[in-house]
Amino acid sequence: MTIEYATRYRRASRIPAEPGRPYFIEKGEGDRAHLFGDLITIYAGGEQTENTFNFFTVEGPKGDLIPAHLHPDTHEVFYITAGAVRLFVEDTEGNQQEKLLTPGDFGFVPKNCPHAYRMERHHSQVVGVAAGPGGTFERFFENLGAPAEQLGLPSEPVIPAPGRFASVPERYDVRFLPDHQWRTR
Amino acid sequence: MTIEYATRYRRASRIPAEPGRPYFIEKGEGDRAHLFGDLITIYAGGEQTENTFNFFTVEGPKGDLIPAHLHPDTHEVFYITAGAVRLFVEDTEGNQQEKLLTPGDFGFVPKNCPHAYRMERHHSQVVGVAAGPGGTFERFFENLGAPAEQLGLPSEPVIPAPGRFASVPERYDVRFLPDHQWRTR
Q1: Is the ipTM of this complex over 0.90?
Q2: Nearest partner of A116 among A98, A134, A130, judged by Cα
Q3: pLDDT of A2 higher than 90
């Protein structure tokens, strides 16, 4: 039996509209969004956790380094479940590190630390948790990109209109750093 | 280069003692604990996230149903990365569900919902997040069980002394339900 719910985010979601209800979601069937070449799938958001945490996956093709950014009030987990992902991070004193992460490896990016990543194999997948005292921001991806109904990666990259970059990231605690340089290699 | 830190929990941990520092942990090298036949590995705890969330894995052999319990103030994620795990959960109105979860499948257990699980294949692994407005409780496992230095599953099950059940679970927002019955089959 598959139960779908109408929520404020989707006409048909596997995430119950009311908090406090247990639920299961099979692989890939969370709330999906496309941003650039990636598929983001939300399995739990702030509504489920009294705004303490969320849980989502990001899947993508082998590709370019995403733009450097930071979150003023959000701590972020990168846990690799498939492929290989190179994570770049800078601490608040300006020290930079990078590391190639493979399945089972973990990276932690505290708030205010600039970071970026690059999928280095096709079919890479990252499990993410992104939250802080100010809340959770899992709906960033579908607001900068677009909600998706179908399963799988976007068939064409979803490129946000330029005006979206001026308004959307700030609402979701995302600050892009267009002049940032990685000096790790 | 591998950096180890002396923390309040371990003489040598891959988790930095001070919050606010980015870090990487390779597969299996988080703070390890044994409880019964399982290996619990903590990759991030409340200190890293201003007490908003944690991130850990539980690995175990094919085995018995663990005792039913609930968390009065903690929401919990079960995300399967290896093997097969049957999750049992009851909502606050007494409705029970169970589902066999395989890699990529997700289960959400809100606070106050009785739950239990059974590893149904050897080498199963669950990624967990367990947190709520009252904090995070990732050190439960090593306080009821024992911290571990070695990698891998316990060579002998770590059985807590009976007196530990009277004092430890309550401190970590765990309430065992010894008379609970699963009626799902």
Answers
A1: yes
A2: A98
A3: no
Instruction: Tell me which chain A residues have a C-beta less than 8 angstroms from the C-beta of B77.
Output: 43-44, 55
Residue B39's pLDDT is 98
Question: What is the per-residue pLDDT across B14-47, written as a single tens digit (0 to 9) for each?
Answer: 999 999 999 999 999 999 999 999 999 999 999 9
For CA atoms B46, B47, B52, B55, give the dihedral sign: negative
Report which secondary-structure segment, H or E, holds A24.
strand A23-25
Cβ of residue B152 closer than 8 Å to a chain A Cβ? no
Q: Domain spanning B5-153+160-176 has what CATH number?
A: 2.60.120.10
Domain boundaries, chain B: 5-153+160-176
Residue-wise pLDDT for A125-141, tens only, equals: 999 999 999 999 999 99
Contacts of B27 in chain A (CB under 8 A): 102-106
Average pLDDT for chain A: 96
- Among B26, B42, B70, B106, the strongest candidate for a mutation testing the A interface, having the largest count of A CBs within 10 A, is B106
Question: Does the pLDDT of residue A1 top 70, yes or no?
Answer: no
* B98: Cβ contacts below 8 Å, ≥ 6 apart: B86, B87, B88, B89, B182, B184, B185
Higher pLDDT, B65 or B2: B65
Q: Which of B24, B25, B53 sits opposite A53 (nearest CB)?
A: B53
User: Are A28 and B104 an interchain contact pair (Cβ–Cβ within 8 Å)?
Assistant: yes
Report the distance separating Cα B170 and Cα B92, nearest Å: 20
User: In this structure, are residues A129 and B55 in contact, taking their beta carbons and an 8 Å threshold?
Assistant: yes
Neighbours of B95 (CB within 10 A): 11
Instruction: List the structure tokens of A70.
Output: 């930071």
Pair of tokens at residue B110 = 């809100």
Residues B131-149 have a mean pLDDT of 96
Structure tokens at A148: 């998706």
Name the pLDDT band for A166 (thresholds 50, 70, 90).
confident
- Beta-carbon contacts of residue B156 (< 8 Å; ≥ 6 apart): none
